[in-house]
Amino acid sequence: MKKTILVTAMLGLFASQTAFASDETKELRKIIEQQQKVLQDLERRLEATETRVEKTADVVEEVADSNSATTIGGYGELHYNNITDNKTGSDKKEVDFHRFVLFFGHEFTENTRFFSELEIEHALSGNDKPGEVELEQAYIEHDFNNMLTGKAGLFLIPVGIINETHEPPTFYGVERNPVEKNIIPATWWEAGAALNVKAAPGLAFDGTITSGLEVATTGGKAYNIRSGRQKVAKANASDLAYTARAKYTAIPGLELAATAQYQSDITQSAGGVDTASATLLTAHVIYSIEAFTVKALYAQWDIDGAEAEALGRDDQNGWYIEPSYRFNDSFGLFARYNRYDNEAGNSDDTEITQTNVGVNYWLHENVVFKADYEKVGGAKDADGFNLGVGYQF
């Protein structure tokens, strides 16, 4: 009897424990299922968060790439001129912030880019003010391949030494040389299309079709080349200009270049005068041996038409030679002899000579202080000195 009661009690206890265990298992399963649902929900949220983070990172990267592809630069120069005209006895004592220029560029892709240059001349512009606000460059450039690059818009004509590279730290002398200023005439920009062909290492060819000059046909500036620049301000395009340049730089320290330009009528088909077709020929050499550099340039305009011939401006030409010596990163000396003729008249009395001797001091490779003595002879008689400071960035 006792055994039966004990067995019955043990069976009852086992049954109750089994029932309890079954209930506990169900509860555990419920808890596990709930936790699984929570984990699944967390996974979905995490995936969504990762997707948002990736999208945000893409946007940040795109913005960063866009910002890094946009560049800003510029240059400027302040001049002091103290020159005496010995024929008239008058003095030119003048301080002028001659140029303040800003560059803006952007790379759309590795092969396509934009470049622009905005300039303020002589600090103030407007009615009765001495200066101008000018857009000197604004063009799109595209590399078709490693050899061929094209551009379209408003750009500098490929001619001479300083027309394309004229930032103050890159040349000697406070003022730019008078030959390239009056004969070429730098700085000279037009609107149109251009191609650059890299034919071989160190050998390149440029070709452009652009707007051209429009010289006056009467008055003191008649057939004067520099005054014929239209600066792409509602420019008369009756007669376009065609320019070609060859440039050789394969030998270290040597640069050789020659440019030819033809315009069928530099009066832009003005009435009452002969058609004045014009051809510009210019060549230059730059040769450096260690610290010594010599630059030389020749330029000549040949203008047809009876009116230009009568004024003596059918042939306008000039040349200069400039040796310089760079003692170190900070200090350099130069001398430059210029001879040119763009004045009206048919005698040797219209020829002008100009000699400059001076020093450049580079406080930084992009910051320069300049001083030079200037002597003008021939058709003019003047002398004095110039001081300047310039920068680029």
From TrEMBL:
The keyword Coiled coil applies. Residues 25-59 form a coiled coil. SUPFAM superfamilies: Porins (SSF56935). The keyword Signal applies. InterPro entries: Porin_dom_sf, Porin_O/P. Keywords: Coiled coil, Signal. Residues 1-21 form the signal peptide. This is Porin. It comes from Shewanella hanedai (Alteromonas hanedai).
